[in-house]
From TrEMBL:
Residues 18-27, 36-46 have a biased composition (Basic and acidic residues). It comes from the Eukaryota. One of its GO terms (biological process) is mitochondrial respiratory chain complex I assembly. Residues 18-46 are annotated as: Disordered. The gene is Ndufaf4. GO terms for cellular component: mitochondrion. Binds calmodulin. Interacts with NDUFAF3. It holds the Pfam family UPF0240. This is NADH dehydrogenase [ubiquinone] 1 alpha subcomplex assembly factor 4. Belongs to the NDUFAF4 family.
Amino acid sequence: MGGRLTRVFRTFNLENRARREISKEKPTPAPRHPTSRRDELADRPGIQEEIYRKDDRLLTLLKDVYVESRDPPVQVKDGGGEHLPCKQEEKRLTKLGNLGDLDVQKVPKGKISIVEALTLLNNHKLHPQIWTAEKIAVEYSLELKEVNSLLEFFIPFAVQEFPKETRKAI
């Protein structure tokens, strides 16, 4: 509501205001300071001569300057053809996935995909004797401490369907 109201005032009589601004006389620029003119150099020939005159004393001093430059010796590394050091992560293939090309194919060791996380949580919930924390850690290449935290703090949802008789009571 407020936007409409401000837009009305902003566009009110817009064309006339624009024409008025365009038809105004342009302001004349402020006069420049006299020292900024380059014409003064042309008026004084002594300054021009001073600029272009060679100073023999300065030239002899410049000729006496000798600069010697040496590059440090090049050190060749015996890397045996190694590349730049980079951390290469070991990857493992994922266990599940029914989305085909959209599924994550490889996951770094020590990490799991979303599908795998949901699957292992559900397996642990349904069969806690079979899917223990130690077995999950070995199966998915995870640390036991992280698996214990995962099983403690993340619980998958349980879908419950109520019979029709109890729905009326609820």
